[in-house]
Amino acid sequence: MNQVSEPRATYGGKWTREKLEILEKYLDAYTTALKKTPFKLMYIDAFAGTGHVDLDDNDEDTENFIRGSAIRAIGIDHRPFDKLIFVEEKEGRCSELEHLRKEHPGRDIQIENSDANEFLRNLQQNWERWRGVLFLDPFATEVEWTTIEKIAGLNALDTWILFPVSAIARMLPTSRQPDDISVKWAKRLTRIFGDENWRNLYQEDPQGNLFGDIEYQRDPGVNGLIGVYKNKLKALFGRRLLEKSRTLKNSRNSPLFEFMFCVGNPKDIKPAKPIAEYILEQM
Ligand SMILES: C[S@@+](CC[C@H](N)C(=O)[O-])C[C@H]1O[C@@H](n2cnc3c(N)ncnc32)[C@H](O)[C@@H]1O
Fold first, then answer.
1. Is this prediction's pTM over 0.90?
2. pLDDT of 175-186, one tens digit each?
3. Is any atom of ligand 1 closer than 6 Å to the C-beta of 142?
4. Considering its fold, how many domains does the chain have in total?
5. In the predicted model, is pLDDT for residue 273 greater than 60?
């Protein structure tokens, strides 16, 4: 049984730049595509940070501090967002976001010092005249399946999800019985996946062990666990899920996150999916 604390993902490498560039390109293309529609546009950053990111495994020849998602969203100016909501659980980071808000007095910026899951699950908004983009950028395993279900049901928010592949892989030891996983981690896995499907990642080893007991194995790669999550998203979002996704890797080429995209409103599948797909192919 593993009693150490839940694995955390690395924060701030080349892959950070990659995800933020993909997001920014999408925000720009999305707002442009909806420019002539009557909808008001909202951006929700559920794990907003401070507006700046400190890259810790950066190339020597580039800047260490880069613009974070909140600053990038405020900076979309071709067709600016009508409302921006930044959710952040750390008070100190909210104070930095507050500075950002003061620097942009003409903008409607709401800062929520709150848990992202709680905020999104309780989100009250009449979406009739609104469309938006939601960015789910956790450190690791913070996004819960019930939150994804709530978002899917709104039919309003195009959502970019960072699925924490490496943190989850470390919670699923390859050579154990699924029942050996600590109760705490098993509960967390079930909260992320929405059910106990993650147990199916373990298959009976046909050879058993030396004593003829049943042994279980998990494929050491990450494709299996990404597949389980994507299948869940597919069942929930249907054609609104973009099959293509981007594997974000660290400097040692190990997968850290899978960056996935789902469309909010079924009527927006075109243009949203082709735009997101094009950006993933080009970058
Ligand atoms: C990967 S960072 C986000 C970086 C940000 N998107 C950017 O580009 O600058 C994750 C942020 O989520 C915050 N966070 C972690 N768990 C949270 C939760 N349950 N609810 C809200 N914020 C959370 C952390 O304090 C951290 O600032």
1. yes
2. 667 788 889 999
3. yes
4. 1
5. yes
Q: Tell whether ligand 1 has an atom less than 6 A from the beta carbon of residue 53.
A: yes
Task: With respect to residue 56, please indicate whether it lies within any of the assigned structural domains.
Answer: yes
Name the phi and psi angles at 255, rounded to 5: -65, 135
Q: What is the DSSP string of 58-86?
A: --TTS-SEEE-HHHHHHT--SS--SEEEE
Pocket test for ligand 1, best of 11, 44, 47, 111 (most atoms within 8 A of CB): 47
The CATH number of residue 104's host domain is 3.40.50.150
pLDDT given for residue 205 in this prediction: 73
Answer whether 191's CB lies under 8 Å from 144's CB: yes
Asked if residue 65 is part of any domain, the answer here is yes
Give the closest residue (by CA) to ligand 1 atom 9.
68
Q: Residue 261 falls within a domain, yes or no? A: yes
> What is the distance in A from the centroid of ligand 1 to the CA of 154?
23
What are 16-74's pLDDT values in tens digits? 999 999 999 999 999 999 999 999 999 999 999 999 998 875 555 566 789 999 999 99
Domain presence at residue 277: yes
Domain hosting 99: range is 14-169+241-282
Give residue 57's pLDDT: 59
CA distance 182 to 184: 5
Q: Which residues contact 154 (CB under 8 A, 6 or more apart)?
A: 123, 127, 264
Of 11, 69, 89, the residue with max ligand 1 atoms within 8 A of its CB, to mutate for a pocket test, comes to: 89
Please determine, for residue 241, whether its predicted confidence score (pLDDT) is greater than 90.
Answer: yes
Identify the residue whose C-alpha is closest to ligand 1 atom 25. Answer: 90
